[in-house]
Amino acid sequence: MNQYMVEAGTLYVVATPIGNLLDITQRAIEVLAQVDVVACEDTRHSARLLQHFSISNRTISLHDHNERQRQEQISNWLKEGQSVALVSDAGTPLISDPGFHLVRHCRQQNLNVVPVPGACAAIAALCVAGLPTDRFTFEGFLPSKQGARLSVLEALKDEPRTMVFYDAPRRIIDTVEDIISAMGEDRYVVIAREITKTFETIHDATASELLAWLQQDANQEKGELVLMIEGKTAVIDDIPPIAKKTLNLLLKEMKPKKACAVTAEIFGLKKNDLYALTLAEKQD
Ligand code: SAM
Question: Ligand 1: does its nearest atom lie under 6 Å from the Cβ of 200?
């Protein structure tokens, strides 16, 4: 007997592994095997996944270019009582992947939409980065063109929450250079590359240290990666009260740049963080 029975007339949004196939959930396997049809971002790619789990089910394509047409077809099937699973090439559908239009269309028609949660690169990366996770912002892919990328990063330079991006490793050196231009060389950055795969690498450093590290190892420009940038307020919040008090005393005696440099030297802090603190306190 099956551990889980799919319901008629339901769209299942099913997460699949982002590398290690052991990360599929038992419920995902049941749903993919039992639904009437599996809508895949790339049918050939998902066929390999289904085959691995000995699932031979009907598949159709649903990608950025046909999603609007497919949403009509799929919602009609759901109304007839059929069940459909939506998968993307890897991870959670809709997260920088197709599916938003379909899910919205189905919900607008009061059709049953059920999540089957599992792997998501952004969440997997965030939970090992050591950056604040109480609040974060997911920014999807950074633009590939340098001017647009720099504008996005400049607009985010005062963002207080941890920022999570998807980026192509072949662009990572250019991206980190842009982070330095937009947010300063001392901003803390974490990259999570090849999560759950053989060459999984999680590396945290200031933007300038990260740049030097990347430039020394061409392997870091391969595979897939998630980039995370520490938010601005979080950095300020971490400054110990004694350092803040010292900085305020020094600010009465010398220029802010010098006061920040001296305080940074005494407490082993980053002068840019202290400078950000003086600006924030001025605004208050
Ligand atoms: N929907 C997927 C999810 O839930 O993570 C993301 C799809 S998006 C098209 C693909 C991007 O996710 C990659 O370019 C990379 O930034 C990130 N990604 C996917 N798998 C990854 C992995 N194993 N390690 C690091 N990043 C990964």
Answer: no
Q: Look at 93-102, 104-113, 230-239 and tell me which has the smallest mean pLDDT.
A: 230-239
Q: In testing the pocket of ligand 1, which one of 18, 142, 164, 200 has its CB within 8 Å of the most ligand atoms?
A: 18
CA of 121 to the centre of ligand 1 (A): 5
Q: What is the band of 26 on the pLDDT scale with cuts at 50, 70, 90?
A: very high
Query: Is the beta carbon of 191 within 6 A of some atom in ligand 1?
Result: no
Ligand 1 atom closest to Cα of residue 119: 4
**Does the C-beta of 120 come closer than 6 Å to ligand 1?**
yes
Q: What is the 3-state secondary structure (H, E, C) of the chain?
A: CCCCCCCCCEEEEECECCCCHHHCCHHHHHHHHHCCEEEECCHHHHHHHHHHCCCCCCEEECCCCCHHHHHHHHHHHHHCCCCEEEECCCECCCCCCCCHHHHHHHHHCCCEEEEECCCCHHHHHHHHHCCCCCCEEEEEECCCCHHHHHHHHHHCCCCCCEEEEEECHHHHHHHHHHHHHHHCCCCEEEEEECCCCCCCEEEEEEHHHHHHHHHCCHHHHCCCEEEEECCHHHHHHCCCHHHHHHHHHHHCCCCHHHHHHHHHHHHCCCHHHHHHHHHHHHHC
Determine the length of the chain.
Answer: 284
Task: Grade residue 238 by pLDDT with cuts at 50, 70 and 90.
Answer: confident
The answer, yes or no, to whether any atom of ligand 1 lies below 6 A from the CB of 97, is: yes
Q: How confident is the model at residue 273 (pLDDT cuts 50, 70, 90)?
A: confident
Residue 1 is predicted with a pLDDT of: 52
Task: Tell me the pairing of strands 188-193 and 162-167.
Answer: unpaired
